[in-house]
Write a sequence for this structure.
């Protein structure tokens, strides 16, 4: 589920958003470029 986009300026940026989701089903997050390349990912325990 895509939940937003943000721009980086001089290598930094901030983003926050509230989403409605069953937190028991969330397994991770991924940061991707506009072309779809993954630049960061996290797995939730």
């Amino acid at each position: 589920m895509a939940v937003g986009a943000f721009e980086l300026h001089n290598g930094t940026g901030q983003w926050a958003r509230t989403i409605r989701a069953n937190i028991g089903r969330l397994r991770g997050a991924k940061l991707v470029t506009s072309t779809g390349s993954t630049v960061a990912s996290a797995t939730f325990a």
